[in-house]
Amino acid sequence: AQKVTQAQTEISVVEKEDVTLDCVYETRDTTYYLFWYKQPPSGELVFLIRRNSFDEQNEISGRYSWNFQKSTSSFNFTITASQVVDSAVYFCALSEGWGKLQFGAGTQVVVTP
Amino acid sequence: DAGVIQSPRHEVTEMGQEVTLRCKPISGHNSLFWYRQTMMRGLELLIYFNNNVPIDDSGMPEDRFSAKMPNASFSTLKIQPSEPRDSAVYFCASSSTGTNQPQHFGDGTRLSIL
Questions:
Q1: Chain B residues within an 8 Å CB radius of A33
Q2: Burial zone of A7 (CB within 10 Å; 0-12 exposed, 13-18 middle, 19+ buried)
Q3: Residues 6 or more apart from B37 whose CB is under 8 A from it?
Q4: Fewer beta carbons within 10 angstroms: which end of chain A, N or C?
């Protein structure tokens, strides 16, 4: 059973538009961690954020912000005022137990000038 | 600081050949992970080492795959014999002490088996 669902396969926006990436997860554990990673066209995976299940405080880092809602099992990611350099595949991941990462299928973000 | 270093970046070989992928984790990290990324299956964990000991190898697809971590600064993933369906990008990642610490990934090895 898929534990992390990223329903959006691809999102295309014009530069300076905001874009929100959805992530819905499934777990029976009370302690778990959620992550977002970015994979630019060059192929490497870049860690963006980690959030534990006890911290529902939203977070903002520059143009990035994350909205964690346990009630809906969602951990959404918003890029404000998108730029061409934001074009990448973004992965949401869930970690339970010892830390095995289970990735979603990823969302391709295409930002055009 | 140096990140996770993988070699080679690209490997093209004929089916039946042995393939060895190499990884140097970030210094001080005691957990190491091997992943495979394909279009069909996405990112899959193959094996996880903690303090050089394999903890979970349930993702290793079959006996043709083997992984070793002889010391804290080096790991290998070997495929023997290789098959075309092994073509993928293989990532190595490492993390520091403590469960659920962020995993930091290498640039990956793009493997093509002809």
A1: 100
A2: exposed
A3: B43, B44, B88, B89, B90, B91, B108
A4: N
| Residues in chain A within 8 Å Cβ distance of B55 | 98
Q: What is the mean pLDDT of each run of 10 residues along chain A (113 residues)?
A: 88 97 94 94 93 86 92 95 97 86 96 96
Six token digits for residue A62 = 């520059």
Rounded CA separation A110/B63 (Å) = 39
Give the helix/strand (H/E) hosting A13.
strand A10-14
Model confidence pLDDT, tens digit, residues A62-91:
999 999 999 999 999 999 999 999 999 999
Contacts 24+ apart (CB under 8 A), A42-48: A42/B107, A43/B89, A43/B107, A43/B108, A43/B110, A44/B105, A44/B106, A44/B107, A44/B108, A45/A91, A45/B91, A45/B93, A45/B105, A45/B108, A46/B105, A47/B102, A47/B103, A47/B104, A47/B105, A48/A77
